[in-house]
């Protein structure tokens, strides 16, 4: 699986470099949507934006199964579990120090796709509000 993942990543990078593959959004698109608080945009609703995409229709059936297994592993380990841990840490701090004020800052990846840090906190009963760029806190 590791060799397969490395080969697919290299093939994808070569395609990007050759111009035969394009990322569907730019870094500027990501920043614009993030700053506007548009976390429901198509960019933020895909977990795949955080991990390499190994699944593609041109793969033979046995390689497609391997790609799906790797994709599932990355999604679970690198996205869902990480966000769960971070959300629980925020919750624990808020509960341990209820009279304190906190400011938590996360990279944009923690707000992308399913099971985000925000989703974890909302499941725990917290209300989370977006503060637009430039707005005083």
Automatic annotation (TrEMBL):
Task: Write down the Pfam families for this protein, in alphabetical order.
Answer: TraB_PrgY_gumN
Q: Does the keyword Hydrolase apply?
A: yes
Job of this protein: Metalloprotease that acts as a negative regulator of the Wnt signaling pathway by mediating the cleavage of the N-terminal residues of a subset of Wnt proteins. Following cleavage, Wnt proteins become oxidized and form large disulfide-bond oligomers, leading to their inactivation.
One GO cellular component term of this record is: plasma membrane
Where found?
Answer: Cell membrane; Membrane
The organism is Probosciger aterrimus (Palm cockatoo)
Protein name in the entry: Metalloprotease TIKI
The record's Gene Ontology biological-process terms are: negative regulation of Wnt signaling pathway; proteolysis; Wnt signaling pathway
PANTHER family to which the protein is assigned, alphabetical: METALLOPROTEASE TIKI, METALLOPROTEASE TIKI1
EC number per UniProt:
3.4.-.-
A single MF term (Gene Ontology) = metalloendopeptidase activity
Cofactor(s) the record lists? Mn(2+); Co(2+)
Supply the alphabetized keyword list.
Cell membrane, Glycoprotein, Hydrolase, Membrane, Metal-binding, Metalloprotease, Protease, Signal, Transmembrane, Transmembrane helix, Wnt signaling pathway
Family membership: Belongs to the TIKI family.
Q: What gene name is given for the protein in this entry?
A: Trabd2b_2
| Membrane topology per record | Single-pass type I membrane protein
User: What is the UniProt remark on how the cofactor binds and its stoichiometry?
Assistant: Divalent metal cations. Mn(2+) or Co(2+).
């Amino acid at each position: 699986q590791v060799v397969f993942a490395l080969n697919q990543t290299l093939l994808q990078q070569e395609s990007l470099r050759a111009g035969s593959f394009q990322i569907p959004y730019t870094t500027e698109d990501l920043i614009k949507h993030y700053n506007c608080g548009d976390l429901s945009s198509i960019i933020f609703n895909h977990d795949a934006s955080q991990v390499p995409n190994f699944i593609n229709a041109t793969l033979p059936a046995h390689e497609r199964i391997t790609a799906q297994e790797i994709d599932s592993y990355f999604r679970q380990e690198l996205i869902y579990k990480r966000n769960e841990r971070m959300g629980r840490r925020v919750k624990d701090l808020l509960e341990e120090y209820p009279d304190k004020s906190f400011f938590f800052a996360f990279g944009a990846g923690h707000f992308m796709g399913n099971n985000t840090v925000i989703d974890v906190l909302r499941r725990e009963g917290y209300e989370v509000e977006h503060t637009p760029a430039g707005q005083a806190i």
